[in-house]
Amino acid sequence: MEFIAQKLDDIVDSLRSLAVDWKDDTARRVIDRLKVVPVKNAYTTEDVKALLDGNFDDGILICRLFLGMSKDQFISVLRGIRGDAGIGVKSYRADPPEFIKDVASTGLLEAMAAEATRKSHWSDVLVERLRSGRGSAISGQRRGRDVEDFAEAIVKKVFGKNFQVRCTFKGPRGQDAKCDFAIPSKSSARILIESKGYGATGSKMTDILGDIRTIIAAKRPDTAFVFFTDGLTWKQRKSDLRKIVEFQNNGDITRIYTYAMAGQFERDLRQLKDEYNL
Q1: Less crowded by CB within 10 Å, the N or C end of the chain?
Q2: In the chain, what are the domains?
Q3: Kind plus residue range of the DSSP H or E element containing 228
């Protein structure tokens, strides 16, 4: 083959859009089933049963579509409701009424009625694209920020302005690490707080382990380090949460808190404030 020195512009000019059909067999089946869902002002558990009695997985997907939930979000919510009862087809077949009751408790019946009776507008499709694309990313960011804001409100209540937010502190061995709160300051941190909230599973839930290890390695041994978190998706990532608990059991993390432990969080911060004379 004859050697030819190709040019960037020639390659760029030859590029074309890789358009693909987003519909797979599952999507086509679900669309067909959606078209035959009766339009009602009110739905009952019998309507949910009709969805799940066919192809169970497709029925669950349709439930998620009505609720506007991702797979991870729906699994977290349903597991939070059902506990150890299971959320798969075997659990459904073992006790359909109880399973359907739990699914309905997510607000599914109301969501079905709202969608079926909603007056359509040409912008609906574009709004949905916005929600599923950019909106999904924003939701994840806001969950984390809401947890951080909640923790900050308590920190401010206890320490006033005597803390720094989203900073990089320097440890005694010259190591740096980022944290959400350094009290009283990043240059002389006696208390470090990391806060994270999750609504869906993903790599970020594993990444926090690295963040925690970095903080532990950088901080002074006598600096208190607490972790504030929440989100049902931890139930799906118990192995990661177990490692964080091990850090606490080993003394590397002083205490782990959730929203339900907010009162204890405040009391412990006040005790640390007294102990460190802050």
Answers
A1: N
A2: 19-118 (no CATH), 138-275 (3.40.1350)
A3: strand 224-230
